[in-house]
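Inverse folding, one chain.
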């Protein structure tokens, strides 16, 4: 008789102790995350922070510049052909408005101050009181006057013998003189000043930059329309660019010392809002590729500007076109100083790894000389922030500051060999700019967002043609 083996199984149910570390008496819910399509202030700030972290993780500056560029491509022929009325409308690509230098429109100073978040101060910073130049004035003045005599004689000859306009001839003479002046200064003072001996001098240097400014009427894309829904009318962003050439610039390995602290009351003062439509004041859109070009290639050892020079350009021609009074000339040249310094510094900042999403961690400083040989302007500019596109930070971020000294008249008349009422103040101010020693003992990390060592790359070579 077969034997049957009966198998029996037992089932056990095991329950975790409610008092275990994975459980609690009160329910704990995950953190609420605002949906992406729900455009609230928290959602917008979160999106910006996430994108800022993405940009920060990129190891090299050229890639950072590419990803933060506001340029938008035009719709292709196929996209336009196959678009149907029931599809989402094809919004016009973002327009990039060019900040001309000198300005292409009348009464530009308030607009230039707003789009660069710059406050202006008449008179140079007290910092220059500590720059000693008395021992060098006599020797430098001789070179200065000799070169000026040569250019003034050549200018008078060109005006008399050629068909060119006096404005063009004076502009060319100013360029030649500034170039000679910078090179003479390097030769004269480099033996006793190491930073000048190691400095890089560039002539006819291209300067290109782009940035985004908030506070304008939204008309470009859905994101900016959503910003208006959050902050009200006039909270949209507009992109700007700058494309000019400076006469001569000097670059060094270390940055200049800041004139004031970013926490100074001057940096926290309010700036009048002048957010009018750029088209209403005659600004032209620029469809060319956007670049950051501070006058040199990425990876150059001398990445910090010491002094840059400019001429008045065609400002006199524009004054005749506008039928403007003399006061407008003064404001026009201040606009030149603001735009030149701001564009030069933000392009340098982008080469150092900073951008509008990852703001600068220390102030950047620039010095600019603008002249037509007779009248001189001196600008000292301190860049405190790049974040111009976040309306929620507008009141807490410091302003950029531009100090200016001018117009300073160099002489009244020239008879071919002697200047009447020659003003030595111009000599002193030029020397204070040129002999302002960079801060070689700076303890701050100059490139905190770059994890990849900058290597020389001819990325923007076509900009130098």
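Residues assigned per position:
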């Amino acid at each position: 008789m077969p034997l049957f083996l009966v198998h029996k199984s037992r089932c056990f149910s095991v329950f975790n102790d409610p008092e275990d570390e994975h459980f609690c008496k009160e329910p704990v819910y995950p953190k609420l995350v605002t949906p992406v399509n729900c455009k609230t202030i928290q959602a917008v700030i979160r999106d910006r922070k996430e994108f800022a972290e993405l940009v920060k993780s990129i190891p090299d500056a050229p890639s950072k510049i590419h990803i933060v560029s506001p340029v938008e491509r035009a719709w292709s022929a196929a996209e336009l052909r196959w678009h149907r009325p029931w599809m989402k409308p094809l919004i016009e690509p973002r327009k990039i408005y060019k900040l001309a230098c000198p300005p292409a429109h009348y009464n530009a100073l308030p607009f230039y101050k707003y789009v660069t978040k710059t406050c202006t101060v008449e008179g140079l910073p007290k910092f220059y009181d500590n720059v000693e130049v008395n021992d060098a004035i006599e020797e430098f003045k001789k070179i200065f006057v000799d070169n000026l005599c040569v250019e003034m004689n050549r200018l008078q000859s060109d005006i008399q013998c050629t068909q060119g306009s006096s404005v063009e001839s004076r502009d060319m003479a100013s360029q030649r003189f500034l170039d000679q002046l910078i090179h003479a200064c390097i030769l004269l003072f480099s033996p006793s000043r190491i930073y000048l001996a190691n400095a890089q001098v560039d002539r006819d240097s291209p300067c290109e930059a782009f940035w985004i400014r908030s506070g304008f009427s939204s008309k470009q894309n859905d994101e900016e329309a959503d910003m208006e829904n959050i902050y009200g009318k006039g909270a949209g962003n507009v992109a700007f660019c700058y494309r000019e050439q400076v006469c001569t610039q000097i670059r060094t390995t270390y940055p200049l010392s800041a004139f004031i602290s970013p926490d100074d009351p001057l940096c926290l003062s309010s700036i009048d809002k002048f957010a009018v439509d750029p088209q209403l004041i005659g600004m032209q859109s620029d469809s060319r590729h956007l670049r950051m070009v501070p006058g040199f290639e990425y990876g150059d050892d001398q990445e910090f500007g010491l002094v840059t020079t400019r001429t008045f350009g065609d400002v006199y021609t524009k004054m005749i076109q506008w039928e403007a009074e003399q006061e407008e000339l003064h404001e026009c040249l201040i606009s030149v100083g603001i735009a030149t310094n701001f564009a030069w510094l933000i392009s340098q900042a982008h080469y150092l790894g900073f951008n509008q999403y990852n703001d600068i961690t220390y102030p950047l400083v620039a010095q600019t000389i603008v002249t037509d040989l007779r009248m001189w302007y001196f600008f000292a500019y301190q860049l405190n922030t790049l974040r111009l596109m976040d309306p929620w930070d507008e009141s807490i971020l410091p302003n950029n500051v531009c100090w200016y000294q001018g117009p300073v008249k160099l002489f009244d008349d020239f008879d071919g060999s002697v200047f009447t009422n020659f003003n030595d103040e111009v000599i002193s101010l030029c020397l204070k700019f040129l002999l302002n020693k960079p801060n070689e003992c700076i303890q701050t990390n100059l490139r905190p967002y770059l994890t990849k060592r900058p290597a020389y790359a001819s990325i923007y070579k076509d900009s130098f043609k």
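The mean pLDDT is 82. The radius of gyration is 29 Å.
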